[in-house]
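Priority: medium. Attachment 1 of 2:
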């Protein structure tokens, strides 16, 4: 009986849901240019950060982002700066004076612990 009700329906091949009442997120097309001059488009979310370089889906070469004027987009100064180190991030959370206090506390703890485990003392 179940075979009769599903006859003619390709299960899994098509969705039975409609797009009625569905609102898609805003999108934008970004154009990338390959070294040989050919271009390809990639669609991103409107609020996404668009990378300056993207790999071509056809030949695997890297394409550079092209602006609305047709010229390649240059990297801004923010992107050229050196990445933050662990030390830089630590200094954002604590002052040097606080770090020196923590260092002295930790060294005192380690020195006291080292003294407890001496053999023959």
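Attachment 2 of 2:
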């Amino acid at each position: 009986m179940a075979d009769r009700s599903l006859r003619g329906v390709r299960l899994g091949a098509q969705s039975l849901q409609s797009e009625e009442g569905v609102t898609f997120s805003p999108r934008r097309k970004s154009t990338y240019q390959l070294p040989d001059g050919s271009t390809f488009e990639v669609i991103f979310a409107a609020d996404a950060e668009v990378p300056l370089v993207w790999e071509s889906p056809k030949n695997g070469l890297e394409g550079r982002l092209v602006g609305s004027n047709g010229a390649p987009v240059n990297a801004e100064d923010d992107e050229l700066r050196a990445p933050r180190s662990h030390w830089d991030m630590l200094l954002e959370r604590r002052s040097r004076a606080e770090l020196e206090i923590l260092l002295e506390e930790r060294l005192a703890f380690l020195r006291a612990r080292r003294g407890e485990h001496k053999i023959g003392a």
